[in-house]
Amino acid sequence: MENVSNINWYPGHMAKTKIQIIEDLKLIDVIVEILDARIPRSSQNPDVREYTKNKKKIIVLNKADLADEIETKKWIKYFESNGIHTVITDANSGKGINDVVKAVENVAKEDKEKFVNKGRVGKSTRIMVLGIPNVGKSSFINRITKKNTAQVGNKPGVTRQKQWIRVGDGIELMDTPGVLWPKFESEEVGLNLAFTGTIKDDILEATEIAFELMKFLIKDYKKNIIERYKLEETLVNNILSSDGEDNDKILQIIDVIAKKRGAIIAGGRIDYEKVSRILLDEFRSGKIGRITIEKANY
Ligand SMILES: Nc1nc2c(ncn2[C@@H]2O[C@H](COP(=O)(O)OP(=O)(O)OP(=O)(O)O)[C@@H](O)[C@H]2O)c(=O)[nH]1
Ligand SMILES: [Mg+2]
After folding, report:
1. pLDDT tens digit string along 181-232?
2. Adjacent-strand bridge partners of 172
3. Which residues are registered as beta bridge partners of 95?
4. What is the CATH topology of the domain spanning 205-284?
5. Domain ranges in the chain?
């Protein structure tokens, strides 16, 4: 396996984007940081801590429809125990979006009372969405602005063409999200981002990603694999308890799935490219079930 942690992503854009975000954040009262509920740790850019030092922040665990509900509850507990208000959403269906508005209103209330005390009534709370690629920023913004598309317009003093959209009682959202770059701190983080499709499949081989994914699924979600691919449970258990290398056992299970799905090339050999695509597509679209890759171990 290539060293995933050394993958250098969009190097030209990175510095510019960072400067832009820091600039934008000067206008922001509350940050909405969107994470992937399946990989809440790997989808968080460590720089965000620096950005959010003196800011209020709400964490949104998006794609919650694809994540394991029990694990998601643990993650909420984890973040809340660190004092961060956390909301779960499915930006595809719009589920949970109103909870985000409510959470922002609650967080903002405190500040507002301060302003009222100082005689500054009517100041809006300005929010901005931050998140790594593919986490659902655009879907989230489309959802949260759909009901209330009243554009607040450019504010004086804002030189760039930023639009503010009213999304709740005294809440204005910056229409463009801040794109954060994931940090490949370890091979594990790189793989997690590959599983969920954040890293394009041409950077790592699909066959490699699918193999590593299967290794994880057999360890934590064996039942889902057996059910989805209608495997004989005893066959799977026999493979797993047989002598031999663990990697070879995973490959044997992939072979069984390949045969079931007709991923066979002339001569009867396994079409690993095809079976890998099937596994990745079905994982990413939730067909294998609701799966959380990173557990909240606190
Ligand atoms: N199942 C599911 N899919 C989602 C959810 N939110 C977004 N998606 C899908 O994830 C993909 C990426 O969503 P986007 O909204 O484009 O993500 P983004 O963060 O704007 O991505 P970039 O613009 O590339 O940075 C799309 O295929 C969405 O349909 C969700 O809550 N659940
Ligand atoms: Mg987008």
Report:
1. 887 788 999 999 999 998 876 667 999 999 999 999 999 999 999 999 999 9
2. 126, 166
3. 90
4. Conserved Hypothetical Protein Ylqf; Chain: A; domain 2 (1.10.1580)
5. 4-179, 205-284
What's this model's pTM, rounded to 2 decimal places?
0.90
Inter-CA distances, 273 with 179, 256, 262, 276, 282, Å: 31, 15, 12, 5, 14
Residue 142 CA: nearest ligand 1 atom is 15
- Encoded amino acid at 92, one letter: N
Please give the torsion angle defined by the CA atoms of residues 168, 173, 177 and 180, in that order, rounded to the nearest 10 degrees.
Answer: -80
> Residue 203: what are its φ and ψ, rounded to 5°?
-80, -45
CA-34 nearest atom, ligand 1: 19
Backbone torsions φ then ψ of 139, nearest 5 degrees: -60, -40
Q: What is the CATH number of domain 4-179?
A: 3.40.50.300
| Residues 55, 25 contacting (CB under 8 angstroms) | yes
Write the pLDDT tens digit of every residue in 39-72: 999 999 888 878 878 889 999 999 999 999 999 9
Distance between CA atoms of residues 123 and 43, nearest Å? 32
- Pocket test residue of 89, 139, 141 for ligand 1, highest count of atoms within 8 A of CB: 139
Q: With contact defined as beta carbons under 8 Å apart, do 91 and 136 qualify?
A: yes
Q: Ligand 1: which residues within 6 Å by Cβ?
A: 62-63, 65-66, 89-92, 131, 133-139, 179
Write out the two tokens for 73: 């509850």
Percent of residues in the chain assigned helix, strand, coil, to nearest 5: 45, 15, 40
* H-run or E-run covering 294: none
Query: To 5 degrees, how large is the angle CA 2–CA 5–CA 91?
Result: 110
Pocket test for ligand 1, best of 9, 134, 137 (most atoms within 8 A of CB): 134
